[in-house]
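step=encode ok
step=design start
structure_in=
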């Protein structure tokens, strides 16, 4: 039986879709696609920034320079970057190298909170496998409404007054000049 050109192209497309959706090769392709499409996030204009209504949020730190409970109120008055992510999420994985670079350079001036609902063992395995040393937290109480998201990754850069300077859902290039300039500006205030 000989297949027509149209049938061959449809078969090829079907094979590509199966590989893309259901194999580890597909996950790798999704990660690289997200990295290619990740641009610097936009900064919210000063007059349009929303404010956190509360710093009432407790977390459990499972990696980084320490472990144990963390009270988000301890971040009040500081510049904070909150990243909601998961190890199974291709866009999250795609943006992680740029977030790690940002963390390496700003960990003394900015409070970084990488927040996941996943099990500690899975997260630690992912971090070790990829050579990441970011501080990862699990939420113990409800996240403040202004930085809550039903989709991941979701990242928020919050100034010292609790105003959200950057709000980005989806993969982004966090190691960009735009982000670095904004952080420098916020830290200097």
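sequence_out=
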């Amino acid at each position: 039986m000989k297949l027509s050109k149209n049938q061959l192209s449809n078969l090829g497309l079907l094979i590509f879709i199966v590989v893309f959706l259901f194999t580890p090769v597909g996950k790798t392709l999704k990660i690289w696609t997200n990295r290619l499409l990740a641009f610097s996030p936009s900064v919210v204009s000063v007059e349009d920034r929303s404010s956190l209504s509360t710093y009432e949020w407790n977390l459990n730190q499972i990696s980084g320079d320490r472990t144990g409970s963390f009270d988000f109120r301890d971040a009040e008055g500081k510049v904070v970057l909150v990243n909601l992510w998961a190890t199974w999420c291709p866009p999250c994985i795609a943006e992680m190298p740029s977030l790690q670079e940002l963390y390496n350079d700003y960990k003394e001036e900015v409070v970084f909170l990488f927040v996941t609902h996943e099990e500690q063992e899975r997260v630690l395995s992912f971090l070790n496998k990829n050579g990441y040393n970011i501080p990862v937290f699990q939420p113990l109480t409800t996240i403040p409404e202004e930085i809550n998201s039903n989709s991941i990754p979701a990242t928020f850069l919050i100034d010292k007054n609790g105003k959200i300077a950057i709000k980005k859902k989806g993969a982004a290039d966090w190691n960009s000049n735009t982000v670095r300039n904004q952080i420098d500006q916020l830290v200097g205030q």
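step=design ok
step=annotate ok -> Helices lie at 5-22, 24-37, 90-106, 120-130, 177-188.
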